[in-house]
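[Discussion] Sanity-checking designs against the backbone

I'm trying to build intuition for which residues belong where. Below is a structure token string of 326 positions. I'd appreciate it if someone posts a full sequence so I can compare it with mine line by line.
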């Protein structure tokens, strides 16, 4: 084993925060194994993304810069990561638990004939082997998964499970990584990407997320959530029950079978707090719960709780925030 490899993803606002969390997890694994931590980034050799990723705690940064990788597809991404594993003799590969990470990691594991672990929340090295802790049964139980053999060991890092790293100086200079793609790696072409219009900020990158549940009683009342999110400049989320009822689109669903978020502020409006939902927002720095039921489970996860009618509390909160801004 020569290195630990971390895959970096770039979004519209730069390096995805989930990838920076993966660097933190990878740093611990690399230190435990006594090997360098190398980051693989898809994109330009220069720019804010490369600078941010390099300064996140990497020992080395390689960049795969090729027009065929923009936008990145599962096939092309898997090919490049596989080549990096081979050339660098990577013993462990970590990726963020995003859609791309969950596509590339298991596909690469199948090609290499090795196992992979999804949604790790803690990573440790014990007796020279990687041990990944992950939640099961909706997060109510944690299990440790130990890799056997020499690897490579492949895993994704659950969003919100690690603190984002502080910049540590300039970091290593990016190095070009040669890209070799065969016909099977470029079979899919992305012709257009249409941004969703659910709010001013995407769930994954939002610093503030306001979510609504069945306590809002009917779809039209979700305007309260939208107005509060707009006041904060945040994004809108929803529970599975709301999505299943057809009130909101699936991409807004937060929870075990939806999106995992880790904003600085999470506001739950009319949400009871089922375990499956809490799994998706437990990485939030602060949670504010608004519910008329004082025994609602959501209050156990809340930093601040407001027991009251959402139809009275939310408008009052919006008005107060408007006065403060004024």
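Best answer:
Here's mine. Compare freely.
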């Amino acid at each position: 084993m020569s290195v630990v490899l971390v895959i970096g993803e770039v979004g519209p606002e730069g390096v995805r925060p989930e990838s920076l969390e993966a660097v933190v997890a990878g740093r611990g694994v690399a230190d435990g194994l006594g090997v360098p931590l190398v980051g693989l980034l898809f994109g330009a050799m220069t720019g804010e993304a490369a600078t941010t990723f390099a300064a996140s705690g990497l020992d080395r940064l390689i960049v795969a810069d090729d027009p065929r990788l923009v936008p990145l597809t599962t096939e092309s991404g898997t090919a490049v990561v596989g080549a990096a594993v081979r050339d660098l003799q990577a013993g462990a590969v970590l990726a963020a638990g995003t859609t791309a990470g969950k596509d590339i990691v298991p596909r690469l594991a199948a090609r290499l004939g090795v196992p992979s672990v999804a949604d790790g929340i803690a990573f440790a090295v014990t007796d020279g082997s990687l041990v990944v802790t992950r939640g099961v049964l909706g997060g109510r139980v944690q299990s440790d998964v130990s890799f056997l053999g020499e690897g490579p060991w492949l895993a994704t890092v659950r969003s919100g499970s690690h603190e984002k790293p502080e910049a540590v100086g300039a970091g290593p200079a990016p190095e070009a990584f040669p890209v070799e793609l065969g016909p099977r790696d470029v079979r899919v072409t992305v012709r257009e990407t249409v941004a969703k219009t659910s709010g001013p900020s995407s769930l994954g990158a939002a610093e503030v997320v306001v979510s609504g549940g069945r306590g809002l009683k009917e779809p039209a009342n979700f305007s309260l959530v939208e107005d509060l999110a707009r006041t904060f400049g945040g994004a809108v989320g929803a529970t599975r029950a709301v999505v299943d009822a057809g009130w909101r689109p699936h991409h807004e669903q937060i929870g075990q079978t939806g999106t995992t978020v880790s904003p600085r502020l999470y506001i739950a409006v009319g949400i009871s707090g089922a375990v499956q939902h809490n799994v998706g927002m437990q990485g939030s720095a602060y949670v504010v719960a608004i519910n008329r039921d004082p025994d609602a489970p959501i209050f156990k996860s809340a930093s601040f709780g407001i027991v009251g009618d959402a139809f009275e509390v939310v408008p009052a909160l919006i008005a107060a925030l408007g006065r403060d801004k004024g």
